[in-house]
């Protein structure tokens, strides 16, 4: 695939305010060596595809040395590449090529917990209770006569207790899998270590960080009980994620960490940024993570959680935009990621889900702020719901029966046979199998085909970059045009772009907003206006 006129990186330090960032789940994006697993060299080879798609930056999920209990979110060495994904040299070659194509690179950082194979945790296990080595993690004695009960009632997000007992009788905290022990962020060595890890990757040219579990590093003093658990009430504590307060999330002191990180980012040229994966009780508390002395962005998961209705979208868009105005940072929109069911399926699956997903893409890409795309959404990929249990790898699956594997199935690139161009000819089958229906959804099957989801994304991204009304972070003006319809305009330099989404149950005539310039379904002209079908969206332009 050739790319015409590659542009170098812009020098704009505010690039992230309106960027489109493409999330690469490294294991499932492209396999260069035919072992059935995606790798850094595979990403490097596919950079021209991403440039042609029209994104500004890539966010790479963890590719560090890891036993892969949680897909790499269990890091054993924060300064090296896992052999499964390549070498540090491959990373350097990939980032050099990305920058030459004008693509920025954001990497994941996992500070809440390490892998249990990390040398610090191994040392803590060996050194025993009361040792300095144990203080870098959260070890505690148990309750009960012989310390046989966990120190408190906290639950793992992946199900079950958040504590595991080691042979000498102490317990350690893991908010996720037992193979992911939580670090003690009140320990100065932990803070110093991560500041150094940030510099390590900044020195290698990364443009930003996605901070994993950014709300989790500080736990309430004294490790108090939550007061209910699955065992006592049948309600999992994780139900409170994003809705209530938990003593292990969103503690005020966590902000000190980001106030220390920001000057490090700012000491590098070119606008190095950080985006929080944070869950907070209210949008107001989430907004506290962003601002000139903390982080640049926090994902707006309320948008992802909105149901397919004009009212639901309008509510979350209004709230998110109001918060971003107060804190002076752009909103960060996301429809799918590696932890959530793909939005084609969330919106109804099949044809209906796909139509809605295509419309939602036009909605998201017309909004001011930064948009995060998840690999494969530009192909309209659905969740794979029927993976055989024995192939599922998500550690949450065994504990809760819920699995995130269905959104992590490798990308179909081309061809009629599995693994659909994921690896070179003659390669192993991919680590998760793609359904045969994905033959028709591959990049090669959609490229150049008018009306395909890939061409819709390409067109929308092209317009987003070129249209003055969509440039920058300016506000939106809602248009009241009828029930079930969501419509808003953005203006610049005498031109107006209006995005209309039809979530109702019949086609609607839209007029007075100018010429359609992109639409998720074919529009028909009617009496000087345009008929917008159900479950679709279009952008109209008036100059
Ligand atoms: C974040 C990641 C998720 C991971 C968890 C633990 O939520 O997005 O994939 O399992 O953190 O690191």
TrEMBL record:
InterPro entries: GH (IPR017853), GH13_cat_dom (IPR006047), O16G_dom_2 (IPR045857). Pfam families: Alpha-amylase (PF00128). Keywords: Glycoprotein, Hydrolase. The keyword Calcium does not apply. The keyword Glycoprotein applies. It comes from the Bacteria. One of its GO terms (molecular function) is alpha-amylase activity. Residues 23-408 form the Glycosyl hydrolase family 13 catalytic domain. CDD domains: AmyAc_OligoGlu_TS. GO terms for biological process: oligosaccharide catabolic process. SUPFAM superfamilies: (Trans)glycosidases. Belongs to the glycosyl hydrolase 13 family. This is Glycoside hydrolase family 13 protein. It comes from Micromonospora radicis.
């Amino acid at each position: 695939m050739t790319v015409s006129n590659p542009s170098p990186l812009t020098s704009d330090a505010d690039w992230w305010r309106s960027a489109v960032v493409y999330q690469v789940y490294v294991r499932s994006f492209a396999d260069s060596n035919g072992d059935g697993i995606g790798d850094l060299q595979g990403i490097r080879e596919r950079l021209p595809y991403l440039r042609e798609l029209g994104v500004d930056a890539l966010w790479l999920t963890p590719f560090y040395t890891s036993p892969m209990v949680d897909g790499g979110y269990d890091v054993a060495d924060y300064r090296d590449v896992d052999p499964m994904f390549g070498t540090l040299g491959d990373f350097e070659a990939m980032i050099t090529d990305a920058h030459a194509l004008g693509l920025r690179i954001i990497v994941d950082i996992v500070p809440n917990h390490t892998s249990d194979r990390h040398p610090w945790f191994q040392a803590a296990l060996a050194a025993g209770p009361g040792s300095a080595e144990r203080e870098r993690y959260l070890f505690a004695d148990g309750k009960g006569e012989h310390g046989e009960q966990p120190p408190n009632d906290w639950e793992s997000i992946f199900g079950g207790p958040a504590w595991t007992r080691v042979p000498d009788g102490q317990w350690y905290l893991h908010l996720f899998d037992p193979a992911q022990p939580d670090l003690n962020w009140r320990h100065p060595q932990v803070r110093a270590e991560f500041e150094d890890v940030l510099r390590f990757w900044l020195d290698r040219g990364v443009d930003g960080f996605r901070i994993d579990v950014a709300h989790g590093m500080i736990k309430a003093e004294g490790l108090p009980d939550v007061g209910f658990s699955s065992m006592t009430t049948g309600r999992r504590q994780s139900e409170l994620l994003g809705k209530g307060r938990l003593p292990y999330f969103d503690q005020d002191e966590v902000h000190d960490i980001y106030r220390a990180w920001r000057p490090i980012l700012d000491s590098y040229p070119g606008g190095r940024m950080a985006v929080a994966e944070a869950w907070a009780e209210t949008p107001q508390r989430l907004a506290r993570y962003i601002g000139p002395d903390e982080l640049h962005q926090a994902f707006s998961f309320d948008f992802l959680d909105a149901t397919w209705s004009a009212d639901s979208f309008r509510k979350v868009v209004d709230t998110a935009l109001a918060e971003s105005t107060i804190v002076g940072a752009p909103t960060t929109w996301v429809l799918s990621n590696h932890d959530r069911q793909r939005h084609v399926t969330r919106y109804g699956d099949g044809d209906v889900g796909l139509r809605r997903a295509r419309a939602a893409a036009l909605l998201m890409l017309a909004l001011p702020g930064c948009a995060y795309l998840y690999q494969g959404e530009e192909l309209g990929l659905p969740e794979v719901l029927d993976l055989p249990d024995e192939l599922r790898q998500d550690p949450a699956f065994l504990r809760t029966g819920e699995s995130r594997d269905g959104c992590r199935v490798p990308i179909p690139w081309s061809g009629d046979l599995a693994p659909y161009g994921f690896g070179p000819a003659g390669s192993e089958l991919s680590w998760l199998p793609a359904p045969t229906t994905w033959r028709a959804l591959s990049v090669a099957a959609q490229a150049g085909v008018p009306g395909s989801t890939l061409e819709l994304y390409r067109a929308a991204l092209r317009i987003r970059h070129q249209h003055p009304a969509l440039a920058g972070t300016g506000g939106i003006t809602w248009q009241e045009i009828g029930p079930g319809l969501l419509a808003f305009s953005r203006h610049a330099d005498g031109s107006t772009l209006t995005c209309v989404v039809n979530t109702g149950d019949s086609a609607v005539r839209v007029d007075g907003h100018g010429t359609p310039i992109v639409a998720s379904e074919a529009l028909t002209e009617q009496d000087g206006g345009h008929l917008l079908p159900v479950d679709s969206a279009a952008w109209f332009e008036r100059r």
